[in-house]
Design brief:
The complex is a heterodimer. Chain A has helices at about 50-55, 75-85, 100-110, 115-125, 145-155, 175-185, 200-205, 225-230, 245-255, 270-275, 295-305, 320-335; strands at about 10-20, 20-30, 35-40, 65-70, 70, 85, 160-165, 190-195, 210-215, 215-220, 235-240, 260, 280-285, 305-315. By secondary structure, chain A is an alpha/beta fold. In chain A, helix 3 (about 100-110) packs across helix 4 (about 115-125), helix 8 crosses helix 12 and helix 9 (about 245-255) crosses helix 11 (about 295-305). Chain B is built from 13 helices and no strands. The longest helix of chain B is centred in the C-terminal third of the chain and has 28 residues, at about 225-250. The complex binds adenosine-5'-triphosphate (ATP) and magnesium ion.
């Protein structure tokens, strides 16, 4: 009756959703394996929330199929709702109920037997660090606590699949850390899809990232795969003092594709601005080569008497760069005139 | 229907902590008490041929106009505005269960408020003996309230299912109730309705005269056609409410 254990957690193919004239989701296809933690990224209005609502069976798709643990959402939405824990955007909660009262009611709706609900409630309250506020009124909780009530509600019935729409929005860094640990603790036992605008956040918790823009899937993969695909280069950050022409000359010897760039925000070309008072300056070296050039660069620069090297790091492009590159690329595609 | 009692229980508790309910209750008892004393003063002046219960229940529509909207306006409009309808409908409950439970809790409260007017009759009985208390019209009146209340509360739930604005829902349910109770009564007296081609309309309008139903019930006549009118109207309105909630999801 319920899910088949071998089916992937989500199978989405050619999903389309249009609202009177607006196509919010346009032919999205992806698949999520059991136990994965997936990050959903996209600019405002990309269609993240719409996709998530369709995955939970709350709104019907215009066309395309969605299977959750092998169960088609379109025809068997009732069963899908039994295996999905969902926290909507903005985490709506009734104003005038107490925390434990609310969770008890939700547990009953999710068909947790009365005898198991009490202990389960204590367990979830403990895990989400809500034990101290269990008798408080929901309308008077702080945002962090409200958000954790939403997460507690989503994991309450121990569903195999959890969908959370922006669980960390509006939280302070400390609370974000707590929520992140909470999500990480679900790893392996539950399949989790979260959407977020906070990219380091996604990068730290998620196994795989889906980037959507204007209703279309523009990229998917692990953060490092995406970095390679969209940025296609490795970057090193070098801090040195000395003649910059000398630096360029000696580097050309090892790798002709090596390029020297000033760090962002410090002006291009005007070396003086990037210089610290003691004469050191920072530059990025980017290469298109796959293999690690770090060792040879350090050796060359150390052997060069006119250059004093102070630090050398392998600089990881942030997911932010990937995000900007991926959404920009898709805008370019969308904005190019349509062939007629 | 596994979740019906869970939601009913929850909704009833939510109505009991809602200030709107107490406003409805206070207004209701104040207005009905005012009518009741006014009516008794009428008796003090000169004898009346009708029993107090018959006259009292004839005012039933005034509290219905404000009480039903106050009790039902929040049930879907508020949930939609807060977004909690989304959390509710993504659990394994069906829209039908939700609509029926919300209807059920509002109806229970409606009946409870009317039941409290029994106190007026009790006081009358204590101080005037059974001189004024005629059980026939009294029981008939309460029966009418219970049966017609089904339809009135269903109309309120329906109005709330159409909007995300509580005030709009309240005004809409007031308008629908007004149309049903007063509008149809007025329509029957209009001349257009006597035209030849309007005959089926005239028959339908004649069938839906809420005041005539009340008079029949008060005389102790329970016409099954009238009971069927309210029951089928209730079922139809609830089906429209379910469709109203689901149609909103379809269009987003
Ligand atoms: N109920 C609705 N009716 C009409 N259009 C809608 C509706 N809901 C969403 N849209 C449109 O669909 C598009 C996608 O919206 P969606 O809420 O899915 O974006 P999102 O990726 O979640 O954005 P955000 O990051 O701001 O939450 C938007 O253009 C939005 O205007
Ligand atoms: Mg969103």
């Amino acid at each position: 009756m319920t899910d088949s254990p071998s089916a992937p957690a989500f199978e989405v193919s050619e999903l389309v959703k249009s609202y009177r004239g607006i196509t919010a989701v346009n032919k999205i296809s992806f698949s999520v394996a059991r136990g994965e933690i997936i990050g959903f990224l996209g600019p405002n209005g990309a269609g993240k929330s719409t996709t998530m609502r369709i995955l939970t069976g709350y709104i019907p798709a215009t066309s395309g199929t969605v299977r959750v643990c092998g169960i088609p959402v379109a025809t068997r939405a009732e069963e899908v709702k039994r295996i999905v824990g969902y926290m909507p955007e903005n985490n709506p909660l009734p104003e005038d109920m107490r925390v434990s009262e609310y969770l008890y009611y939700r547990g009953r709706l999710k068909e947790i037997p009365r005898s198991r609900l009490g202990p389960r409630l204590d367990e979830v309250l403990e895990r989400c660090d809500l034990t101290r506020v269990r008798h408080r009124i929901l309308g008077q909780l702080s945002k962090g606590n409200r958000q954790r009530v939403g997460i507690a509600e989503a994991i309450l019935a121990e569903p195999p699949v959890i969908i959370m729409d922006e669980p960390t929005i509006g939280l302070d860094p400390h609370q974000i850390l707590i929520v992140r640990d909470l999500i990480a603790s679900l790893r392996g036992r539950m399949t989790v899809i979260i959407s977020s605008h906070i990219l380091p956040e996604i990068e730290m918790t998620c196994d795989r990232v889906l980037i959507i823009n204007r209703g279309q899937l523009v990229a998917q993969g692990t953060p490092s795969e995406l970095r390679r695909e969209f940025l296609g280069r490795t970057r090193y950050l070098v801090e040195y003092a000395g003649d910059s022409a000398l630096l360029a000359g000696s580097l050309r010897l090892i790798d002709p594709t090596l390029q020297i760039e000033s760090p962002p925000g410090e002006g291009t070309g005007e070396a003086s601005r990037a210089e610290s008072p003691d004469g050191f300056r920072k530059v990025f070296l980017t290469t298109r080569q796959e293999s690690d050039q770090g060792e040879s660069i350090i050796r060359i620069l150390a052997a060069q008497p006119g250059i004093r090297l102070r630090s050398f790091t392998h600089s990881h492009a942030s997911l932010e760069d990937v995000f900007l590159a991926a959404t920009k690329r898709s805008w370019d595609i969308v904005d190019s005139p349509l062939p007629r | 229907m596994r979740h019906y009692f869970t939601i009913l229980n929850h909704e009833t508790r939510m109505l009991l902590v809602n200030p709107g309910t107490y406003i409805a209750a206070v207004l209701f008892l104040a207005v009905m008490g005012f009518f009741f004393t006014g009516m008794l003063e009428g008796y003090g002046g000169a004898g009346q041929e009708q029993s107090p219960a018959t006259i009292f229940f004839r005012f039933f529509f005034i509290p219905v106009f404000f009480m039903v909207p106050l009790l039902t306006m929040k049930c879907f409009a508020e949930e939609r505005r807060l977004g909690t309808l989304e959390t509710l409908l993504t659990t394994p409950v069906t829209t039908t269960e939700v609509v029926l439970a919300k209807f059920g809790s509002a109806y229970i409260l409606y009946l409870a408020l009317w039941a409290s007017t029994g106190g007026f009759f009790y006081v009358l009985y204590r101080f005037a003996g059974d001189r004024f208390i005629d059980p026939g019209p009294l029981v008939g009146g309460y029966l009418f309230i219970a049966i017609s209340g089904l339809l009135f509360v269903a109309i309120g739930v329906f109005a709330s299912s159409l909007s995300r604005n509580v005030a709009v829902a309240a005004i809409l349910s007031f308008t629908l109730l007004f149309g049903l109770i007063v509008g149809l009564n007025f329509l029957e007296t209009m001349a257009v309705i006597d035209l030849e081609f309007m005959r089926p309309v005239k028959a339908a309008v004649g069938y839906a005269q809420v005041f005539e139903h009340l008079d029949d019930f008060s005389r102790g006549v329970v016409d099954t056609r009238q009971v069927i009118f309210y029951l089928s109207g209730t079922i139809l309105t609830l089906i429209f409410s379910i469709l109203g909630v689901e149609a909103k999801l379809l269009q987003g």
